[in-house]
Protein 1
Amino acid sequence: MKAARVPMSQGFTLVEVLVALAITGMLVSVLMSSLFYIFRVQEGLRNETMLRERQLRERAWFREVLAGCLPEEEESKRYFQGNQTEFQCETSNTLMPEALPMTAQIRMTLVQDSDKAFLRYEESGKSQTQATLASWEGVNAEFRFIDAKGEARTQWEQGTEALPRQVWLLLTPARWNSTRQQEIWLAAPRADPWLPEKAALPPGMSWDMFK
């Protein structure tokens, strides 16, 4: 009686192996392309988030410093004054405060360099402090000062009002065909804009006696 022969299993042919490799390569290529796209999207979102946070922080600094501006007598040389490119004031909200809370004179200056604008911050005190608060590309920057009547001034000198009601930082596109729109940073001092009236002194006395 003859033993039954068990058929031997056949291997893959060369054509089948090549087809399998080609399909595997296509799948790996699609997977790598998808991963690369996902990484690009994540990087773009991360950069956009960081840029947005930086812009919000710069605006917050601008608002806070101006919110602390105080009405000062013109004789003190620390009163609020400004023009289209710079302003100065005595503020209680400095960006780099000392150990003890105190006021300091600050100056903000707009510097135009070719197609780029910079907002410089300068603080007077025990140590002179200078920093770049913000920068923009493709814009022209200038300040405007709003008085009690709501009128915008290009220059602020102390008069009946010691402080403007609002300070605008206008960012206008430098090119007429730019897709960017005009942007306005708005800040308002919290202090009363009117100088406090001095109490009347008895005849023969002056405030210079108390200096």
Note: The chain has a mean pLDDT of 84.
Protein 2
Amino acid sequence: MDRTEFTTRAFKSDLKVREEVEQEEKVIEGYFVIFNSETELWEGAFEEIAPGAFDETMENDIRALINHDTKLVLARTKAGTLTLTIDDKGLYGRIVINDKDVDAMNLYARVQRGDVDQCSFGFNILEESADFREDGTTKWTISKVDLHEVSVVTFPAYEDTGVQARKRDFEKAKEQSLQSRKKALKEKLQHAKTTYATSQD
């Protein structure tokens, strides 16, 4: 996959709201990434995020957005209003809501009611591996990313660009695998011919 291509991944989470009375803060929090959880991109093609994938990107200045819209910034790590932590389960985010921001307060109310409980994250893939399994399916394991943003989203769907990029990878890898098998078969036949010819001398 093109390492310079920004992509997003999304899934149903368990986002919750919390009101911290002492700090007078309203908070949205939950897991924005779950490790070792296969997501089906299309039939027979899967992807998962490995533990450690975010270890080298946590110093980035990361934003929390609404529906990946850069005009709707909820919080930011540099400002201390977004806190991201990694544990064995995944990447956990804590967003402190600006009560003077109408969009943020509306979102808080929607999460509180359970109308919105899903999330996504935007990143570049730096390292990954592909497993072409015996059952004909393929699984990519992403082991290192450059994280840019996390989003609370209404409909967590893979962007067409991300899926198409994966499909291009898949078709290219499938063609390379086919060519490799053809080459191996050709070499095997050539070796058999040589062995047979030698045995006749």
Note: The chain has one domain: 7-158.
Protein 3
Amino acid sequence: MSVAVEIRGITKKFVLRHSRSIKEAIVWLVKGRKGELTETFDALKDVNLTIRQGETVALLGFNGSGKSTLLKHISGVMLPDEGVVLTRGRVAGLIEVGAGFHHDLTGRDNVYLNGAILGMDEQQIKERFDDIVAFSEIGQFIDTEVKFYSSGMYLRLAFSVAVHTDPEVFLVDEILAVGDEPFQRKCLEKIHDLAAQGKTLVVVSHDLDLVSRVCDRGVVLEHGRVIFDGPISEAVAVQRAR
């Protein structure tokens, strides 16, 4: 089985800026700017992970553990400070609702824009356009500017474009927490279809019951490090016990 995602020793630091009182700031200036008003936070620390083609993997952990940051590195939205991330084939998915959408463009224009961002050419988008609109259930609003869409409409159209790019690696970050229950079920069915087709899935979710149904493997993160990597049932047990 070939490798779909290879993560080698990646580290990511963020700068935290602290707000201080005027008095503290004056003292800091008087002392010749000794001592920083900022500090760094290690979001990921020397993370190594290999995901093979066709695997369904859940990234688990509490808020701040680094799971969403790791997903953004796989998607290419973020670049590591150290280490490398290698992916094979088209990578698509939902990292943030409406990411890649332009508020002043219509739904139709955004399908073409987002489809192009995700690697489809114009002919491919044309061929899949009707299926994208039908799945999204946007209907008559497809020619309305997306700034007038509800968050649920955003979600439906963004998810529909992503799944119709026919990606080799599909990423999902807490996206099923948004939208109504019928569409959530529809999304889950589509995700199961992708898995059945041998696509690689990487899912971030706090819903342990959901990931138990969708994924076969679980990776638990804590303070930016991988503390467990194994069968989903064991990963869920580790997460529940913390």
Note: Residues 60 and 117 are 28 Å apart (CA to CA).
